[in-house]
Backbone:
């Protein structure tokens, strides 16, 4: 038994003594690669400073700066560059003890704080940093991590407003082929003035899943992913008018897909709200989707390089833009890209509205002589759109549009609110009647509808051709 146990003990001792040096070297090599990738991003500069490495542990600071450049820095109060420091402390494996006994190549931790203390900021727990994140790099290269934002309050002495937030906790993991993150304790925010709540945001949460590793994302730029940002409720009160706005169950879902064979990617953003209540309207079951499809990976890579050139040579912006369009745009247009609003729906004051707008650029074989050639774009644009609305929803939208158009008219401004409302309703009724008479609107038992099609520079509305 002793003969069996002795070699195992010797191996463990070797791992415990020699392993930290080996794992420390691996971690710092990864850190160097990360800094190099940051430097490859347009406008970013990164370097490792204050690097200290011992046998069992090490620490370093990554100084990251973003060079604004003359093209993006138009304000005299804006600094030439924005920079911040990321301190990182590492314990070398394979035996890790910072968060209990664990096995892995390294255990790391980052704690972020402003350079100078913030007056009137109070942590409501034992936290000492505004943001903390820690992780363990496993023996097979996978990393599990968790992050933390403390509960705190901040008082603005200039106006007496008090900002409060609950704690945020999240966890996830990443490897060479995937990234996953999920909020464990959602964040809530409350802002008060004179003891009265003027805004509260409840249960902010994030879920994210990416089917690529961090380094692969930097290299490919397009990838498969799905993320959801959600808020349970938002309540805002205008202190001057006491008007309130309430939003419930808001979510923004982002989905990206990438086809390795075609080198094309799709991007979809879906925004939803269960209910929005104001003193003017109530919006229920709102959904607005926006998508860009058939994005060329080579085009995205060239665009990134173009943005880098723009930041470094703002004085040559016009030449750089023209050169980029002439050399890179055609390959993107030849993929037949799509710009769509595939889902538009809501119930406005109890009246339903739904529709879609799909747009494709097709059969582009060469660039136009000038990019403002409207005839060229109309010839290659395919549009299919449909909008269905019940009467009250249509009139509400038309009234809001009409009010916006008339708001700059001095005569309209001099009217009372009831007079303005009467004028708007008269204009809306006349406009709807005119559209129906000209075939621009259809009416049936379900409400109003309009169908639009544009193809080969010919526009049809409800089947009727409209001269362009």
Residues:
């Amino acid at each position: 038994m002793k003969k069996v146990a002795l070699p195992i003990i010797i191996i463990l001792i070797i791992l415990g003594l020699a392993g930290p040096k080996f794992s420390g070297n691996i971690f710092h090599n990864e850190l160097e690669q990360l800094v190099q990738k940051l430097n490859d991003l347009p406008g970013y500069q990164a370097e490792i400073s204050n690097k200290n490495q011992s046998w069992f542990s090490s620490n370093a600071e990554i100084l990251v700066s973003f060079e604004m450049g003359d093209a993006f820095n138009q304000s005299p109060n804006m600094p030439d560059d924005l920079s911040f420091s990321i301190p990182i402390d590492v314990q070398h494996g394979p035996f890790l003890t910072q968060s209990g006994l664990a096995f892995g190549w390294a255990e790391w931790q980052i704690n972020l704080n402003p350079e100078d203390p913030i007056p009137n900021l109070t942590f409501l727990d034992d936290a000492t940093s505004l943001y903390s994140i820690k992780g363990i790099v496993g023996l097979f290269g996978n990393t599990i991590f968790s992050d933390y934002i403390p509960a705190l309050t901040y008082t603005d002495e200039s106006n007496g407003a008090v900002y409060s937030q609950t704690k945020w906790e999240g966890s996830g993991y990443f490897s060479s082929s995937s990234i996953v993150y999920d909020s464990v304790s959602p964040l809530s925010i409350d802002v008060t003035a004179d003891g009265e709540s003027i805004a509260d945001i409840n249960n902010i949460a994030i879920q994210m899943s990416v089917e690529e590793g961090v380094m692969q994302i930097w290299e490919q730029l397009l990838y498969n992913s799905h993320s959801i940002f959600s808020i349970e409720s938002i309540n805002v009160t205008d202190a001057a008018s006491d008007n309130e706005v309430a939003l419930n169950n808001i979510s923004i879902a982002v989905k990206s897909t990438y086809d390795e064979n075609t080198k094309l990617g799709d991007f979809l953003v879906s925004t939803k709200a269960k209910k929005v209540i104001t003193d003017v309207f109530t919006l229920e079951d709102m959904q607005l989707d926006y998508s860009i499809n058939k994005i060329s990976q080579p085009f995205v890579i060239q665009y990134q390089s173009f943005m880098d050139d723009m930041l470094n040579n703002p004085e040559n912006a016009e030449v750089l833009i023209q050169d980029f369009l002439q050399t890179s745009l055609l390959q993107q247009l030849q993929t037949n890209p799509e710009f769509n609003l595939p889902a538009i729906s809501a119930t406005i004051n109890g009246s339903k509205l739904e529709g879609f707008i799909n747009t494709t650029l097709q059969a582009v074989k060469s660039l136009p002589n000038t990019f403002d050639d409207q005839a060229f774009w109309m010839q290659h644009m395919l549009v299919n759109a449909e909008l269905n609305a019940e009467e009250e929803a249509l009139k509400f939208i038309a009234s809001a549009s009409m009010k916006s158009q008339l708001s700059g008219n001095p005569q309209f401004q001099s009217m009372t609110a009831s007079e303005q409302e009467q004028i708007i309703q008269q204009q809306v009724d006349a406009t709807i009647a005119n559209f129906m008479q000209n075939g621009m609107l259809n009416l049936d038992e379900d409400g109003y509808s309009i169908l639009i099609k544009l193809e080969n520079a010919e526009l049809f509305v409800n089947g009727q051709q409209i001269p362009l």
